[in-house]
Amino acid sequence: MLTLTLTRHGQTVENVEGILQGQTAGHLTAAGIAQVKMLKSQLNAEDYDIILCSDLERTRVCAEIINKKLKLPLIATPLLRERDWGEYTGRKISTITTPPSQFPPSIENAEQLAARAQRFVRHILDQYDGRRLLCMGHGYFNRCIQALIEQQTVHDTPRWENVELRTFTIDRDILSHQAPTDYIVSER
Fold this sequence. Notes:
The chain contains six helices and five strands; from the N terminus they run βααβαβαβαβα. The chain has a single domain, classed as 3-Layer(aba) Sandwich (Rossmann fold), CATH 3.40.50.1240. The chain is α/β, with parallel strands linked by helices. β2 (about 50-55), α3 (about 55-70) and β3 (about 75) form a beta-alpha-beta unit. Residues about 180-185 have low confidence and may be disordered. A five-stranded mixed β-sheet has the order 3-2-4-1-5, sandwiched between helices.
């Protein structure tokens, strides 16, 4: 069993402009950096053993800002990357009218996201069982992880605000309940 505290990176220019960043670096705004500094002031090193973050620049920079205070081992991993929006990357969300069930094949689909969420959970249970993790990720993929943990769909999982914290206690039983796609495929 381990304690997983997930958070999302600070606000980016692309968030403000309603652009799908996907697996691009992203550009933190001044407000986003201030959000991360506020979060940093609320965190205590004794509450965590390690920090994991997405290897994308917007999350890595935020994790580094937080770790200036916490001084914990910090590991960047592609397992925490945001959804790959394929050919939609860089487009304004408001211009996309295609229903998710008809997204082009270049976009990471629900089954792929579910499998990646399961790989992430399996990885942290294998590597960090019994530890307390602080993980800096992304809004949509954090929802995928939470959907797996809570055995619900992404649609039923609340959206993540920038630098919001949510904490879960998880154990290996979560990996044996059902196939991971049962939790995530009903996105709308």
